[in-house]
Amino acid sequence: MRTKIVLLILLLIPSTLFPQGTDETSGASRYDSYAGKTSMGPSIVASTSWVGAIAEAAGAEDVLVLAPIELRHPPEYDFSPQDIIKASQADLLLWAGYEGFMKKLRQAAEISEHKLIQVQTNNAPDKLSESVKAMAELLGTQTRFALWNERLEKLASSLQEGASFKKAGATTVAVQFHQQAIARYLGYDVVAVFGPQELTMNDITHIESLDPELIIDNWHSPQGLPFEKEGRGYVQLINFPGPFATSTLLEVLAYNGKVLGLID
């Protein structure tokens, strides 16, 4: 009789008092659409300012960036115990795929696959538009993306007009690996790409034999200083928002355009 009474009580207790399954399949169903979950959208933790800026350009409002913007090369950041908590509490964890600290953070915070999203980082306007659009489709913020993309297209048009006026197509360039996409987009005659591996004497000798008119280096990890000399142009472009009072993707593009002398 006592056993029957216990069973009856258990059947009458609301099922919500018992924890439900939390496997990745059930979790994924909770995040199949991020639009309208809250007025702010999902909480997002981004590895670097570049990745975070892509999410913000797509329309995300609640974005926390882990690597400090003061770091010259953000992918080298080493996460803290507080970052583990932040990552575990976020709805989405964004990264570009090359940040070593994110692989360790994912293991430490036990992040499931459906919460980890890889973002393509490329500041050539056409590729950048694709990355931001993909993020907007994930977040359900296509309307915000459309408004941002109009501003991107206007800036890209100004950059291309400047490149045409400066005769970029007739300018031979040696460019650091991480800046080659924007150099090619602007129409420069790229005769050599150096890095990201350490330059050898053979590399330097070969590029010097090509006698490029302009060296486009990467400010975050400069390698082109050996090619700087009188009578040859030398510039350093940025990828990650933060340096030189930049905080958005459009500000990064505008800064690079000014460094190249393409826009005022």
Summarize the structure in short:
The chain has helices at 2-12, 24-30, 49-58, 81-89, 100-109, 125-139, 142-165, 180-185, 201-210, 249-259, and strands spanning 44-46, 63-65, 92-95, 116-118, 172-176, 189-194, 214-218, 233-237.
How would you describe what is shown here?
It is a single chain. The protein starts with a helix and ends in a 5-residue tail after the last helix. Helix content is 43%, strand content 13%. Helix 6 runs antiparallel to helix 7. The N terminus is likely disordered. With 264 residues, it is an alpha/beta fold. It has two domains: 134 residues, Rossmann fold; 103 residues. The chain is built from ten helices and eight strands. The protein is globular, with a radius of gyration of 24 Å. The strands form two sheets. Strands 2-1-3-4 form a four-stranded parallel β-sheet, covered by helices on one side. Strand 5, helix 8 and strand 6 form a beta-alpha-beta unit.
Descriptors for this entry?
globular; single chain; 13% strand; 10 helices; alpha/beta; Rossmann fold
Largest sheet: 4 strands, parallel
- What amount of the residues lies in strands? 5-15%
The percentage helix is 40-55%
For the record, the CATH class of the largest domain is Alpha Beta
Rg, nearest Å: 24 Å
What is the end-to-end distance? Answer: 88 Å
**Structural class, from secondary structure content?**
alpha/beta
How many strand elements? 8
Shape label: globular
CATH architecture of the largest domain: 3-Layer(aba) Sandwich
- Spans of at least 5 consecutive residues with low confidence: 1-33
Number of domains: 2
Q: Taking all residues together, what is the mean pLDDT? A: 88
Strand order of the largest sheet: 2-1-3-4
Helix segment count? 10
Oligomer: single chain
